Prior knowledge:
Blueprint: H1 6-25, E1 30-38, E2 45-54, E3 57-61, E4 70-73, E5 78-81, E6 83-88, H2 125-130, E7 134-139, E8 148-156, E9 164-174, H3 183-213, H4 223-230, H5 236-245, E10 251-255, H6 258-271, E11 275-279, H7 287-293, E12 297-299, H8 317-323, E13 328-330, H9 342-351, H10 356-362, H11 365-370, E14 386-389, E15 400-405, E16 408-409, H12 415-424
Parallel strand pairs: 1-4, 1-5, 6-7, 9-10, 10-11, 11-12, 12-13
Antiparallel strand pairs: 1-2, 2-3, 5-14, 7-8, 8-9, 14-15, 15-16
Helix pairs in contact: 3-5, 3-6, 9-10
Amino acid sequence: MKVMNVSQLFKSSLIAVALTSASAAYADSLAIVNATVHTVTEQGVLNNATIIVDDGVITAINPDNVSADQTFDAQGKILTPGLIGSMNQLGLVEVSAVSRTRDASDKKADITFDASVAFNPKSTAIPYTRKGGITSNVVVPRGGDDQFKGQAFIVDLSGGFDSVVETHTAVIVDLGAKNKGSRALELQKLRRKLEDGQKKLDKAAKKEAEDKEKAKPAKGEDKADKKKADKKEPKRDEKAINTLLAGEKPLVAYAERATDILELIKLKQEFNLDLVIAGAGDALSVATQLAQAEVPIIYGTLSALPSFDAIHASLDSTAALVKAGVNVAFTVDGDTHNLYQLRFDAGVAVANGLTKAQALAAVTANVADVFNYNAGRIAVGKKADLVLWSADPFELSTHVEKMWIDGKEHSTQSRQDALRKRYMTKSDMPRAYSK
């Protein structure tokens, strides 16, 4: 028998690792056939449809020839885009009552606060969230004393250490009612921040124009280098404000009262902001203005009840807002541990006048549009986040049968399932805490 020496063994191991890595980098292509596909596009619902997925992306819908490494028969069941959660601290908070497991806030946090570096993809809340058909989530920090709470980021719910998909996705600001102080000052502070930022940008642009009119640099001096040396680098918080003024990322503002929403619409128009209203309890009072200004809202259907700041809110507000032309995205208000409920909350809106197609868009495409995320629809080129349901996704008795994130199948088994099995399975072991 031929025996390899140490050098040969080492080379052989390297080749094996390289081959394994190469095969892992390119996932098997997948064909999902015979599905009732809710595309959340102009194509609507496709019956007996075929979806082709390759390398984490949807590459074809109903192709003439089906060719894939794997084929899955959906048996006519409903296939939707993966649902998208938002406006919560999933992966940043494990046990709310235990301070050492909370990483979503800090007293000194400001507009630059990026909590994505503390995101825990192994949180036990993530598999539980997947059970609700949710494949990705927009995580937002709680911030600190500053009105700016920090930067949102997007994660997939695969549970892998590469789960953070995008960082610095949006700037979060908290406005409206205060336990101490006045909402007026918070609105003024926001306006002044934007005004100061715009003045600095205008001043820099003016100086740059003036520099172009100046005489050429001395012989041997590089003009580009001189400009670079003269240009003052903005501070980190100024850079964050500049991205808002340039419309490069959305400003997500928590606000409930109609007058606060109207003031924010003025700021959008004055500074050309990509504005999103979160909470928006009294949005129905200003639905026309929101629609005309093309300002989307992120709304919790079960929180749409009367309050001091939202006296007109009701369970049928969502349907009325959509009818008025407002782009509505659903959230489970700030509920990190019960995000699973998202589809049920959407079902409540359906029970109060919203169509099922509109409700599905509110938990998929509309969320993706708000945060400029390439998901939320079943269309060629979109991220292959897909969910196969046992029946109507908005029914309580329905469950997830299959889930794909980036084209890879993921389990919906959670810690709760393991506990149920532990305590309910008959064995010679004691029944733990049950009698």
